[in-house]
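Protein modeling request. Please complete all fields; requests missing the sequence field cannot be processed.
Requester role: graduate student
Desired output: 3D structure, token encoding
Chains: 1
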Amino acid sequence: MSQPARTATVALSFASAAHTYSHMFVLFYATVVLVLERVWQMPYAELFALSIPGAVMYGVAALPAGWLADRWSAAGMMAIFFIGTGGASILTGLAEGPWQLAAGLTAIGTFSAIYHPVGVPWLIKHSRNHGRALGLNGVFGSGGTAIAALVAGALADLWGWRAAFMLPGLLCIATGIAFIIAIRLDFIVEGEGEASPAPSSARSDRARAFALLAITVMCSGLIYQLTAYALPKIFAERLFDFAGQSVLGIGGFVSLVYLVSSFSQLLGGELADRLPRKLVYAACQLLQVPIFALAYLILGPALIPLAAVMISMNLMAQPAENSLLAHYTPLSWRGKVFGVKFLLTLGVSAVGLSLIPLIHAATGNLNALFILLGFAASLSFLAAIALPHERPKLRVDMESGD
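Delivered output (402 residues):
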């Protein structure tokens, strides 16, 4: 295997592990909170609110992380991600009260924020087929979302809620040590250019594209975050006794939904390499609208496959979204631009997370959330369809490398 091919393979492996951790660690609490309702005898809305500062930092910290990656080292920031996220999770598992727990969750959100603005452009830099690499990497990110509820539920049921944070934290630190060794032994060689540079976009299109993508990434991020955080509670309330009474049973169905939907990103990546990315992106936004309307109405086990389709449409758009953003961004600015993207995606949507306890406290359920999600998908479609058309001479066959 040639050095560039080995670098691409090893970089994809660590980027995929990091993507898994980034989503998994911030979502442990969405399941653990169901245990703490009983253990600490506190209401759901009050306990859930403890996670909001961490969710905000998951977006806000993306901008300085991307800036540091551009100015200092993307690989160095990836190492900090692994060690910092793992250490913060261990400290969260040692919390003795709500304030310590909130501090730990905030630290997890801060360190987990490093991956998206750093790891995604770092992967694009080292990959040969951008859409395919982003699609595969996206499967691992969704896999992190999928197994978060299952891992947290299983560890909490077996050894208590603290184990749900501490044991994965140790694994994350071990992965960080392996990453540092791989860099030192030149299994990953950091170069100045891209493994497969894409043709540059027209300068006149960039301002328009950035403005429209700002709208779409905020809406898509809002949909993803609200769904990921709310789904355990929605299943607990709307599946009735189908999932049983254990956290593991509820977490298992949440994990199944995200596991099935994660593979939609492979299709999304292939479509982004072969078709106009704007059309792929816009179609995924539009198809979500009727699905949210159905989800508002459906109760019982039928909600499980519908949730899988709902999340699949959101995830299928991600390779096209990241590929479009990279297309309009010079390599030297990608860390900062992706930092802004995830500040908008995760930071603004984190503010939306405050609606979850408010809606639940006001109505006693989360049904109204689907109305908000449908509105966000509609707005995202209108912005996506208005993106500049990709000129044929600027499209590249990522499969052949021409």
